[in-house]
Amino acid sequence: MGYEMILIKSLKRMEARKLGLALLVGFCVGVVACFISMTVSTAKQQLSNLPYVVNASPVAESSNYSQRSGRGHGAEGSNPSSDGATRTNQTSSSTRDDALSGGQTKGSNLESEGDKKTEARQPSKNQKEEIIESKQPEGDKKTEASQPNKNQKEEVNESKQPDGPRISKSTKSRTKAACDLSNPRTDVCDMEGDVRIHGKSASVVLVTDRRPRNSGRTKSWRIKPYARKFDKAAMAHVHEVSVRVSNGLGGIPACSTNHSDPAIVFALGGYTGNYYHDFTDVLIPLFITSRRFDGEVQFVIETTNLWWISKYEQILRSLSRHEIIFFNNDDRVHCYRRVVVGLHSHKALSIDPTRAPNGYSMVDFTKLMRVAYSLERDSPIRPGGAGAKKPRLLLISRQGSRRFTNLGEIVRTAEELDLEVVVTEAKMGSNVADIARVVNSCDVMMGVHGAGLTNFVFLPTNAVVIQIVPFGKLEDISRACFGYPSQDAGLHYLEYSVSEEESSLTELYPRDHAVFRDPKSIHRLGWIKMGEVYLDKQNVKLDVDRFRPLLLKARQLLHQ
Ligand SMILES: *[C@@H]1O[C@H](CO)[C@@H](O)[C@H](O)[C@H]1NC(C)=O
Ligand SMILES: *[C@@H]1O[C@H](CO)[C@@H](O)[C@H](O)[C@H]1NC(C)=O
Ligand SMILES: *[C@@H]1O[C@H](CO)[C@@H](O)[C@H](O)[C@H]1NC(C)=O
Ligand SMILES: *[C@@H]1O[C@H](CO)[C@@H](O)[C@H](O)[C@H]1NC(C)=O
To answer: Domain Glycosyltransferase 61 catalytic: where (predicted)?
Structure first.
């Protein structure tokens, strides 16, 4: 259980100092921060339901998804494995209370928007064969001092070297390792050729037949394949994968299994388990990285986390038709013609089509969600049409903080505007598929800033998202987390800022307190303090008269 245990513990004692520092640094470089917190009760629940599986290396290439994550097959399978029944049980409970209501307590983290400066060159655009290509952040050249400039000499034209000392030339041989370490969100190595993965040693080796021209040194990187590189607190709980290029003169393991399709290696560490982070740190990056293979790709996961795999099984299955392989203690060597270590990532909960293969966008991601969960609706209702059905409003009600205290009044107001209101309760969403179905059946979704808004990914294109921004100058944060992402997904985005009078903070602080008079001074106290005041302690009583015009606008947007 070790790793998951560490994760949960770490979330509970997420050090305020580190986060505060990270926030400060973030603001200094103009980063917009995003506050999504981890539900501690969820974490505990997941912990109590975690299977004690440490070795579930599946049989290669059998392609039967239903059995792939349940049982251990590895020769080293000395640990007790979970069986299907256990998995089912812990799966349903692990998804129960976080998906709709979102996080609600202390642990917080940052979302960087500030990575525009570094544009990740797409390795695939490079027509040349290169043995090594490595992009480093500016000013971090020293670790790579000797190698990169040798690229020119290292280029190989196969026709010119017909009798080079090849090691394995059975298939078309294109040998390339391109590591991009320049993106502040993620490190990615893309390797083609004879690539071998050894789970037990967490290593990926590209075997080349190249003569060791330069002192025969092997080229190596250490990659944490979780797309949140800028966040030290998250990355402290992601294991490293060793990636190297070796000329085959020693220490090269023999292949136990050959795979014809490519592999993508990634980790489930960091903030895995928080609904928002599952999408922004893993699922969307995985989509960017894997979609172009159209299912003909195998996921190799550094962290065994079966409840997570089960929770998002439909999404994973829609991206890969192969079984998942876990690193574990797998002593076998899986060989591929192409391996990508790490996941591409562009921005918070979204995709930059100019940087994604095939121009993939958030609209494409939401289309895939519809396929994965068999969601029927691609577009919202057109009110007043022939069928004359009412548009449906999904009201996301949180359980802990940032709750609506006058839910009934809000519902009545919406019904007066001829909307059919669906109120989600945390317990309703026993799994993501259920949530997805409900969300997709709605035309407008509203909720107070929180992880539950991540559910916009299931809305039909052109539907409306209304984010209720709690009092306390939280507009920038809220917009970065859900405003821009929902717009990228082809949705209409509306924002409603809670006024002093609508905030429950008036019951906690006098009106002349800095909390009201000078919110920025509370922000300056640091991330944790700011979150305690404005996010953890605040509930919202919507002034329905003030809110009504916005709801009307949402309704009108459906006519467009
Ligand atoms: C997968 O295995 C299950 C149970 O063994 C079986 O019912 C199902 O038909 C299999 N599916 C495929 C695609 O082989
Ligand atoms: C699943 O959970 C329920 C309720 O917690 C329990 O009664 C049941 O025995 C569990 N099933 C398995 C297979 O563990
Ligand atoms: C590599 O080989 C191809 C095909 O024989 C040839 O057209 C090309 O000019 C060669 N490139 C270099 C750099 O020698
Ligand atoms: C994998 O492929 C290599 C090269 O084609 C071959 O030598 C080796 O025997 C294969 N291994 C297995 C287990 O099929």
So the answer is: 275-466
